From TrEMBL:
Comp. bias intervals (Basic and acidic residues): 64-73
Annotated source species: Vibrio parahaemolyticus
Protein name: Resolvase
Residue ranges of domain Resolvase/invertase-type recombinase catalytic in the record: 1-63
A molecular function GO annotation: DNA strand exchange activity
Lineage: Bacteria, Pseudomonadati, Pseudomonadota, Gammaproteobacteria, Vibrionales
Length: 83
């Protein structure tokens, strides 16, 4: 993990917003907080991805289109045919 690499070099990392300080000294509380922040971030990413997939499914039900615009497809076809 990045924080472990930095603290192994006798440097410290401070998160001002969360009021956390990670130093080269092993601290059980620091490890707990780091793992909790990581779990929350992973959960948020999963929720965002779930909502994104739901939105795509709803748009497809309504007949929405995805992918490149037709003008790019036509341009690519013309370039490959003539070029």
């Amino acid at each position: 993990m990045l924080i472990d690499e930095v603290t192994a070099k006798k440097c410290s990392i401070q998160f001002h917003k969360e009021n956390l300080l990670f130093t080269s000294e092993k601290n059980t509380f620091q490890d707990l907080m780091l793992n909790m922040l990581g779990a929350v971030a992973e959960f948020e990413r999963a929720i965002i991805n779930e909502r994104r997939l739901e939105g795509i499914a709803k748009a497809k039900e309504k007949g929405g289109r995805f992918g490149r615009n037709d003008k790019y497809r036509t341009l690519q076809r013309n370039q490959s045919a003539f070029g």
